[in-house]
């Protein structure tokens, strides 16, 4: 069985997303032309909201465990404890850090504060 779900979200009239030619993105859905918003636009809006709440820029990474490990090492943790701590943070969110090449990276991109002192 194949199930395709489309969700319509009402927005006030605006050009929330434009294509490479700077034209509003659109599609015909239900026989009516509609403005289309890309998933990247929603993600950017969410990222900007997080940055506003943190009052600092963020950056995306798959290497959260490595980032946490590095910041714990800067605070005096030994390497083994810092690595376990970084992996524990990732696992607390239900993600599995991949051990390939010791990168401890996840399969999804996550946002972290750009400034180390903000976490």
TrEMBL record:
Pfam families: Cas_CT1975. It comes from the Bacteria. This is Type I-E CRISPR-associated protein Cas7/Cse4/CasC. It comes from Amycolatopsis albidoflavus.
């Amino acid at each position: 069985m194949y199930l395709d779900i489309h969700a319509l979200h009402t927005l006030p009239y605006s050009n929330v997303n434009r294509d490479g030619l700077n034209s509003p993105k659109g599609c015909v859905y239900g026989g009516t032309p509609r403005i289309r918003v890309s998933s990247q636009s929603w993600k950017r809006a969410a990222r900007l909201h997080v940055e506003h709440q943190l009052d600092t820029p963020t950056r995306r990474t798959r290497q959260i465990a490595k980032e946490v490990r590095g910041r714990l090492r800067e605070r005096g943790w030994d390497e083994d404890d810092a690595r376990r701590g970084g992996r524990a943070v990732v696992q607390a969110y239900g993600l599995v850090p991949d051990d390939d090449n010791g990168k401890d990276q996840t399969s999804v991109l996550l946002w972290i504060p750009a400034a180390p002192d903000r976490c």
